[in-house]
Structures are given as structure tokens and as C-alpha cells.
Amino acid sequence: MSHPKHGRSDHPVHPLITQRWSPYAYSDKPVSREDLLAVFEAARWAASSYNEQPWVFLVAIKEQPEEYAKLLSCLVEPNQAWAKHAPVLVLACIRTTFSRNGAPNPVAAHDLGLAAGNLCLEATARGLQVHQMGGIVPDRARVLFGVPEGVQPFTAIAIGYAADPVSLPDQVRVQETTPRGRKPLSEIVHAGEFGKSWV
Fold first, then answer.
1. Among 107, 68, 73, which residue's Cα sits nearest to residue 87?
2. Cα gap 157→60, rounded to integer Å
3. CA spacing 20 to 30 A to 175: which of 21, 90, 143, 168?
4. Whole-number pLDDT of residue 164
5. Which residues pair with 87 in a beta bridge?
6. What is the mean pLDDT for each group of 10 consecutive residues in the chain (199 residues)?
7. Sequential DSSP letters for 76-132
8. How far is C-alpha 52 from the chain's CA centre?
9. What is the model's pLDDT at position 4?
10. 57: helix, coil or strand?
11. Whole-number CA gyration radius for the chain
């Protein structure tokens, strides 16, 4: 049976793409180490500029409460309010220079996005859900986790099993239960000049 958050594509795509969504309500069911290793393995195989693989993931699981609380404290407060229920939290960082020559890597964030996309699809294939967050406190993360110069704490990721949204605050519950939509291809695929639809 389809979940209300599963999307409907205008053109046929792999079902994992439309089944992926970003819950706010998480079950306290732990995620197995095997599943976590698999989602990070999927991230490991993402494409990256010059095969730099500029991503680094700091992981905290609820079974290690001190580490978990430390990572949770690196999220902005509105994200802490719901993310504290997810069994796994991840701080995603990027190395900002190329290891081969020390030059700035202007596409490191793009490459992290590719890795995170792989992570999301592998998680979805395993019945897990992922919610990515831009709302972090990078300077706090840098201090608490000893993140060195040349590495930028960039985003956070919650991983776990979606739960009934009944316990969420009203505004968040509405977001959780509203069907997802996307812009039509005509708005995002152009040709000839910007704004001229290719579709």
C-alpha cells in the first residue's frame, strides 16, 4: 500500500525515488549496524570531482547517549525538537581543498550532495527514512568534534524509521501529512536560453 508521502512522477522512474521522503516523526526503533554500514557504503560509491570523495560523516546513535547528545547539540533548536527522536544522527562535512594539490575544491558541496543522495536511496531500499538538515551550528560542531581546518561541517542527517506523526506539533504535523509535489519539468529543464522550456 502506498504511503501518503510517496510522490507521483510524471514520467516512469525507479520507485525508490518517489518513495523517498523526509519525515519529522521517528520511531525509537534502532537501526542495525548492518543497515548503517550499507547506507554509508552507498554514499562511498557516489561520483565526485577527480574522485576526491570530499565527504566525512560523523555518526551518533542513541545507544551511545553522550555522543548522541553532543551531535544533537550541533543542530539549531527547531531541528533538535524533532530530530532528538531519530535513532541515528549524522553530521556531514566536506574537505574544502583537493588532496592532490591543495587547491580549493569548488564542487565539494555538490559532491557531498551526490553522496547523500546515494545514502537516501539505499536507506529507502532498506525501509529507512532520512531527513537532511541545513540547520546546524558549524562552529559548535567544529569545537565539539575537533573538526580540523580545511574541513567544513555542512549539513546534518537524521536516519531511522518513520513513525505516526500524531505527536508532532500542529504545524509540523501538517507538513508531515501533506502530499509531496514537485515543479514541472518545464520549469527546470531549459534549452537555447534560460527560461525557455526544453520539455
1. 68
2. 10
3. 90
4. 81
5. none
6. 74 88 90 98 98 98 98 97 96 97 97 98 97 98 98 98 80 73 91 96
7. -HHHHHHHTTSSEEEEEEEE-B-TTT--B-TTHHHHHHHHHHHHHHHHHHTT-EEEE
8. 20
9. 67
10. strand
11. 18
pLDDT at 134: 98
Amino acid at the residue 45? W
Place of cell 519525515: 23
Return phi, psi of residue 108, to 5°. Answer: -60, -40
Residue 144: count of CB within 10 angstroms of its CB: 16
Residue 167 grid cell: 505527536
pLDDT at 133: 98
Q: How far apart are CA 11 and CA 7, in angstroms?
A: 12
| Spatial distance between the Cα atoms of 118 and 41, rounded to a whole number of angstroms | 9
Q: Give the global pTM.
A: 0.91
Q: Give 178's contacts (C-beta < 8 A, 6+ positions apart).
A: none
Reduced to 3 states (helix: H, G, I; strand: E, B; else coil), residue 62 is coil
Q: Please give the single-letter amino acid code of residue 16.
A: L
Q: Please report where in the chains the cell 575537533 appears, as a residue.
A: 146
Report DSSP state, residue 97: B
C-alpha cell at 168: 508532532
Distance CA 90, CA 74 (A): 10
Cell numbers 516512469 correspond to: 12
